[in-house]
Write a structure and sequence with these properties.
Helices cover 26% and strands 22% of the residues. The chain has 13 helices and 23 strands. The strands form five sheets. Strands 2, 6, 7, 8, 9 and 14 form a six-stranded mixed beta sheet that branches. It has a five-stranded antiparallel beta sheet with strand order 1-10-11-12-13.
């Protein structure tokens, strides 16, 4: 990622006019503790600079009133301008999180710039000249600025004023709500089996229609597919379809599956959604329309329990109360020709599921890097480097650089880490244990794997 040079001075009020005068008149006289977010890696300091001091106490009554009575209301006027001035005058960087949340729904460029200037003042950085929301949010994430008191209550008010359907999503749980942002689409709240009904959302597919390989004449040999095999039954999920649907609830080899695809992370995953604890119904996975560090946030439409998409763990709702952890099966990212040759009896999703669209986000929209804030990225690999990720029996996450692994395996070399072994399959790579059993691996961009597995081992070292 490019290095961002930050000039630093105590205050950033240049060019604010009347707004500056209001802020200076309202400057808070209380003492702020010199706490920061802890020791940060050198690469974070190099790219983002040194974080500001952060208080650890409650918000002042004036700030609480400003937030509750004015700032978080849907309309903007003189009361909101005054409330924003009070928030900035608090000199509390934690409040930049709420301003960032407001920026995501700003209705005009001037409003975005006003909010960005306020957030920059709290963070003691120069106001961004472009990509305002991304720049502010990247600093907040990279510096690990704590959330302000009652953050979820305030954030929930912001988000549900835009999409009321999120009222059952924004609840307490084992999730860092600071990192959740809007992906630009609405929640898919259609019940199971009603995925034919139109929605202004990313439309999941339930029990998708499939065809034989011979009937799939619409696919070219070099088209990318996500291959899954369960109990000897193989199926291909074309990327062209998954970029439109992003979520499939299917049955393969006698097992129920939930298959999310995050275009932003380059990651298709497959979770078993059966053989669950007594009293737990099969989760029907849908897209919330929200992101967490550029990874889709999925949920169960039956219980409104939110899952960590990358880890398959329920983090809110009734399923989190049951500590539900979904088991993964491997997804092989490969081309259609190779998959069909290795699995001649494979089935494949039918073309109609692509809804007449033909996207290639990887080589188009996302080609220049993540388009949503991700904060700091482990610098050991480029952000969009493909890795094969898996969790070893010890619980240690390990990522294998796909390009290097393909070369080494093609030469007949062995690649392993603890109990993990890599094998070539159908033009892609699968991770198995020492007995050859599947370990539930999948391909992803490095930035995504490393941020959800921050202590990951990396091959080659």
């Amino acid at each position: 990622m490019p290095v961002v040079s930050l000039s630093r001075s105590p205050f950033r009020y240049r060019g604010m006019g009347v707004f500056t005068a209001v802020i200076l008149a309202l400057l808070w006289s209380g003492q702020i503790s010199a706490q920061t977010s802890g020791t940060l890696p050198d690469y974070v300091i190099k790219e983002f600079g040194v974080p500001p001091s952060v208080p650890d106490g409650p918000l002042s009554p004036a700030v609480q009133r400003a937030l509750s009575d004015s700032l978080l209301q849907s309309n903007w006027g003189s009361d909101q301008t005054a409330a924003l001035a009070i928030v900035v005058a608090s000199d509390d960087p934690r409040l930049a999180w709420l301003i960032s949340d407001m920026m995501r729904f700003a209705s005009s460029r001037s409003m975005t710039e006003t909010l960005a200037e306020a957030a920059a003042s709290l963070l003691q950085i120069d106001p961004p000249a472009q990509n305002h929301w991304e720049m502010i949010t990247n600093h907040l994430i990279a510096w690990d600025i704590p959330a302000p008191p009652e953050y979820l209550k305030f954030k929930r008010a912001i988000f549900t004023s835009v999409v009321p359907g999120w009222d059952r999503i924004f609840v307490e749980g084992d999730i860092d709500w600071r990192l959740v942002s809007w992906g630009g689409v609405l929640i898919d709240d259609r019940p199971y089996g009603r995925t034919d009904r139109r929605c202004n959302c990313i439309p999941a597919a339930d029990d998708p229609e499939v065809s034989s390989a011979a009937e799939a004449t619409w696919l070219n040999d070099d088209d990318i597919v996500f291959g899954i095999e369960v109990n000897g039954e193989a199926r291909a999920y074309p990327r062209r379809i998954m970029e439109v649907r992003e979520m499939v609830n299917d049955t393969l080899g006698g097992r129920d599956l939930g298959i999310p695809y995050c275009t932003l992370c380059g990651a298709a995953q497959a979770y078993f959604t059966d053989h669950l604890p007594a009293g737990v119904q099969r989760p029907i996975l849908r897209t919330t329309g929200l992101l967490i560090r550029s990874n889709k946030v999925m949920y169960d439409v039956r219980t409104f329990s939110v899952f960590d998409t990358f880890l398959g763990r329920a983090v809110t709702g009734p399923l989190a109360e049951r500590s539900l952890q979904l088991e993964q099966v491997s997804v092989i990212t490969t081309d259609w020709g190779s998959w069909r040759k290795a699995h001649p009896d494979t089935t494949v999703l039918v073309e109609a599921l692509a809804l007449g669209r033909d996207f290639d986000f990887r080589n188009g929209r996302d080609a220049d890097g993540p388009i949503f804030p991700v904060g700091d990225v482990d610098p050991r690999l480029p952000v969009h480097e493909d890795v094969i990720g898996v969790v070893a029996a010890s619980g240690t996450a390990v990522a294998f650089q796909r390009s290097a692994a393909m070369i080494a395996l093609g030469r007949g070399e062995e690649i392993g880490f603890e109990d993990v072994r890599l094998v070539l399959e159908a033009g892609g790579i699968r991770a198995v244990d020492t007995a050859g059993s599947d370990l539930g691996s999948h391909q992803a961009f490095w930035f995504a794997w490393s941020q959800f597995h921050p202590d990951t081992a990396l091959w080659p070292r």
